[in-house]
Amino acid sequence: MANIAQATFVGGNIIIQCDGRWDCCQREQAAAKVRAMNAELSTPPQKYIKASVTEAMQDRKEKCQNEATREYQSGDDDDKAQMAKDSGAPDCLAKKIEDGEEPEVQMDHPLDVKLGGAPDGVTLTPLETPVNGCFGSFAKNLGNRMRDEKQNKVESISLVCPADKKCKSSNNAGPKRKYPTDDAAKARETTYNFSALG
């Protein structure tokens, strides 16, 4: 498995390979994010990759995130854990919060706005910063590359997360179970190093 999260696309399918430094719960969060993204992609109307996220749309997205962040931060650990559970986060994140670990989280849209998700009017989910940053980077960079290749619609998102002895499951999600290794995929590959986030 790669030490740095990476992603590529084959047609309309985005395939993400886990970061080897993610802990088991971060892997579970990534799998939950992929399931949420695919659920949004399968819900009408069809979603199309945006050529750009307009300033007005970015303002709506940030307002939605700020409101969700205020609500999340206003509660105690039990409230935060319950909010995580209610919004679809995996139980392991709620347990981290209940145990007082205070993971750094960001409020995450179910489908990134760049990939056609709504900027507001949706339930946001707490997602640990390294995982959220990874998905945001991939949505922006791969979204732009897909549009450059005249692929304007994402058909599916997959997470390839090989088994890890420390974790109970592989945390694969989505229809693809193998990360492409061909030269064309490598040419489109985007890597994400969360160490820059501190």
How would you portray this structure in words?
The chain is of the alpha+beta class. It has one domain. The chain has helices at residues 24-41, 55-73, 77-86, 91-98, 129-148, 183-188; strands at residues 5-10, 13-17, 105-108, 125-128, 156-160, 190-192. Strands 5-2-1-6 form a 4-stranded mixed sheet. Strands 3-4 form a two-stranded antiparallel sheet. A hairpin with a 2-residue loop joins β1 and β2 (13-17). The longest helix has 20 residues, at 129-148. The protein is globular. It starts with a strand and ends in a 6-residue tail after the last strand.
How far the N terminus sits from the C terminus, by CA atoms, comes to 22 Å
Radius of gyration: 16 Å
- Main sheet: strands, sense, barrel: 4 strands, mixed
* Structural class category: alpha+beta
- Helix share bin: 40-55%
User: Beta fraction of the residues?
Assistant: 5-15%
Give the H and E element order: EEHHHHEEHEHE
Mean pLDDT, nearest integer? 93
Number of helices: 6
Number of separate domains? 1
Topology of this structure?
Elements: E1 5-10, E2 13-17, H1 24-41, H2 55-73, H3 77-86, H4 91-98, E3 105-108, E4 125-128, H5 129-148, E5 156-160, H6 183-188, E6 190-192
List key phrases describing it.
about 200 residues; alpha+beta; four-stranded mixed sheet; two-stranded antiparallel sheet; 6 helices
Task: Compose a concise summary of this entry.
The chain is 41% helix and 14% strand.
